[in-house]
Amino acid sequence: MQLFNNVNAMHEWCREQKKQGKTIGLVPTMGYLHDGHMSLVKAARQDCDIVVVSIFVNPIQFGQGEDYETYPRELEKDSALLANEKTDAIFAPGVKEMYPAGYDAYVEVQGAITGKMCGASRPGHFKGVTTVVSKLFHICQPDRAYFGQKDAQQLLIIKKMVRDLNFPLEIVRMPIVRESDGLAMSSRNVYLNAEERQQALVLNQALKTAANNIRGGERDIKKIHQQIKDMIETQPLAQIDYIEISSGENLTDLEEMRGEILLALAVKFGKTRLIDNLLVEV
Amino acid sequence: MQLFNNVNAMHEWCREQKKQGKTIGLVPTMGYLHDGHMSLVKAARQDCDIVVVSIFVNPIQFGQGEDYETYPRELEKDSALLANEKTDAIFAPGVKEMYPAGYDAYVEVQGAITGKMCGASRPGHFKGVTTVVSKLFHICQPDRAYFGQKDAQQLLIIKKMVRDLNFPLEIVRMPIVRESDGLAMSSRNVYLNAEERQQALVLNQALKTAANNIRGGERDIKKIHQQIKDMIETQPLAQIDYIEISSGENLTDLEEMRGEILLALAVKFGKTRLIDNLLVEV
User: Fold this and answer.
1) Mean pLDDT in chain B?
2) Mean pLDDT, to the nearest integer, of B87-103?
3) Checking DSSP bridges between strand A144-148 and strand A170-174, what pairing results, if any?
4) ipTM of the prediction greater than 0.90, yes or no
5) Domains and CATH numbers, chain B
6) Which among B1, B23, B30 has a CA at the least distance from the CA of B90?
7) Which residues of B are catalytic?
């Protein structure tokens, strides 16, 4: 397994692989890898000749007062996990390497898909994401790039960006990986104390209950919304950021419960903001 | 020579060329080709195995009240010129093909380089340019892309975009091609009536005079600026949009006359807005 910190070296190496006719699978991450990330790596390993995993805590997708400084980093442990899954290359550039002095170019998806949910709570977040992902795509030239359904909005935005800007690659969506008690895996779970961790289980439970109610015939969007809200509010530490019921295809507001429906939420426990979601087919 | 109107077909064809190890040169144009464009095509023909010329009048780089509707189009004549230079493929997509319903992704270079000159006179113009050029790069996968020094600001912005977003290609700059009387070639010259056409010669003359004065030792930026202004104002039909003296490298304002200096201007004659520029090395 090779480790690259340099944009040009990474790019030349990927270019060489492509020249040899090999397909490249890219897994963009911010590191501190958990089984969710590893499921992406395993999928890439199965589909592609070459697996590249990027590890980069991207400053421009964090807002003021967010956790950029404290975001957990553990490159050595990550490297060991990735070596174990036969990753071919890690790309772990420094911030100056990705954003040199005078950096000024950005990629942005506009419209409803970025304006609501995490886009409303975290202004500029998705612009930071689409910019860094564009850079990674240009540097690594993947045939396929792997993203987790955990970040449902991010995934839809990246798919939209790829389609609209004609990026020559395929986005592969992988399901959410959960702890045995149902908490969606996240590098940020490490921030939770025992009590917060326990109360956070309500997120998956509320989503599952709502999905069951929909599958059982409930079609009243407001009612489902209220049920989720009521369930979460049983936990005293939970502060709801948003609960959204929208089209699983493009995040537009639903007029009726039909098609692929995304139940998504962001809730703070103490200082830790968690997101979770569930897709239901009606 | 092949003609493609379809994004996927163009992309697949370029992908096939790359697979065969061929280098691709792309010349992005809005058509109505003149010798300026053809100098780019000839350079691409010399440098690359495959030459692709795109012809697309890009609606999103035109502002309200600008000449999108009336911009001259002549695909058949363009095709004949390109066939004559052994162009391999023309990419001439329709607007819906490039911007389908619900289109929402944009690429933007921010900062001083886009905020002044044509960026100030034509808000949104360069965002439209960088977006369409990004799309063309993704579709055609060029090793090199050719742009004319005539659009000096556009060229610097695209170079900046390529560098910042790590596009895997080289931007080649080609010098301005002029009519025998010195008027910079432009598809928009066709709009000029005889009188406007005659008076427009002052642009190149004023730039040349200023460059000669600088080469002769003049270092006072304000004085040079005033000289250009005075000369242009001798022509009664000329309405100055801007005259700028800035760094030829990144368009920053000059504190002193040093390095590569760009003398650039935009002037209207009747309804026709012309741009011209000249680089001087001090």
Assistant:
1) 97
2) 98
3) parallel
4) yes
5) 2-174 (3.40.50.620), 187-281 (3.30.1300.10)
6) B1
7) 37
